[in-house]
Design a protein that fits this description.
The chain has 20 helices and eleven strands. It has helices at residues 16-31, 52-62, 87-99, 110-122, 138-146, 196-207, 222-231, 262-267, 272-281, 305-311, 326-341, 344-361, 370-380, 390-393, 406-413, 417-432, 441-455, 459-470, 479-486, 488-499, and strands at residues 3-6, 35-38, 103-106, 152-155, 186-188, 211-215, 238-242, 245-247, 292-294, 297-299, 322-324. The strands form five sheets. Strands 3-4-5 form a three-stranded antiparallel β-sheet. Strands 1-2 form a two-stranded parallel sheet. The protein has a two-stranded parallel sheet with strand order 6-7. Helix 12 packs across helix 13 and helix 16 (417-432) crosses helix 18 (459-470). The longest helix is centred in the last third of the chain and has 18 residues, at 344-361.
Length: 505
Amino acid sequence: MALLRFAPSPTGSLHLGGLRTAFLNHLIAKQLKGKWILRIEDTDNERFVEGSVENIRRGLEWAGLDYDYGPGIVGGPHGPYFQSKRLDLYHNYANRLLESRHAYRCFCSPDKLKETKDRLHQRGSSATYDRACLHLTEEEVARRVKHGEKSIIRIHDESIPKRGNAPDLVFGDLRDAHRSLPTDPVLLKSDLFPTYHLASVVDDSEMGITHVLRGEEWLTSLPLHLDIYACLSIEPPHFAHLPILLNSDGTKMSKRAGHAHVATYIAEGWEPEAVLNWLVLAGWGNRTGTEKLEYGKSIPDVFTLEQLSSTFKLSALTTRRGALDRGILRHLNKEHIKLKSREPDLLSELVRNAMPVLRENFSENTLITEGFVGQVILTLSDRLSNIADIGETAPYFFVEPEWDSDKAVGMKASVPQQNYADAIGYCIKSLDQLHLLQWRHDVLEPTLYDARKHLGHTSKHFMTTLRHALTALKDGPSVISTMETLGKERTLSRLRHCQAGRIEV
């Protein structure tokens, strides 16, 4: 069975790159009919940030990425899922490497190591260590360990067994990058915690990981990891390194920047499906979604999570780093809101997400009920780029229009005064005759058509009059849809308000 893992370090908030990595692990696991693990790589005490694990789990939960094994899930065959609770395991593997002479203890102090590195550099050497401790006798090593001297364990990079180079699933065949590695890299630190290199290899092997999907930044470490596998006589998993995400201007995205944090997108009200859609499109070539041209511009593919599970191909990822454009996210978010509004269960989810924002914007407003907010979302579904924008996009559904605003005054002035008065008066008369059960699109449309024909007004003047009276804004959903959502009582109240010439709210 295929088994994948998402293995973040608890050094801060879950960022977009981490979310993409988790999502692709989720997708590939589903495609291979396998499972995936959340593993917390918490072996760097100096960089640990309190609350990071909870933040990571909240971000995955928000995105709907349910891991099969990991923190919070009782049992599971691969635990524990925190590396800090697996130290004995790493010590055992380190001792195996010592016994096979693929590794050795180094007792050099940090100051001496720095001095050695500087000296080698001044001589023009690319080496970072002179292997001063490589040839210590077993007796000398045992004596120093017994006396409590601190040491680290290094892999001896000249003792590596011959091994092959399996192609990366994204980058293909890779050149040998050993020269980019430090001399005899450290596997176990003096605090007895493993480095990422040893811990990740040991855990991936012990847990039976078949595919490792991780960021491109680990490409330079791949030769070392393959060396460790070879020294332990373990078959390595398949590797796929994911190109780094960039800002829209092509600069590298900082993990510390707020716009890189998943929590920011949660707070701003973006749909998780849209964010995942946005992330997966970065660097994905040869797509077969709903991409089309509009006004001469390419429109991004819109995929549901189910479609992505069957459509996405890891082999189609390009090695080019993908830039994240917020404009594309806005487009995708709008499309996903449309899709969700068509499904009753998903519409209810949109309503639940909108309610807190609306209550904050319009405190103590009795119109803010789940039923009415659902109607508003349906009316605005073609116009909403973010569910949090409802109050800003169409405040007139919850409060009286601002008839005295400069834009509203300009709207009214664009219609001849007599035409405005006649249209308001005639529509009040015609609409007042409709029963509540007749207050629907198929009745309202011919009623307004007949009113305009009777008055002999142009469509522009007639509809501008009604839009001014009902919303005081030039843009919005159709006048008929607006009337349906407002209901008969509120529609007639606004028309009468404008008939009387009162513009105060």
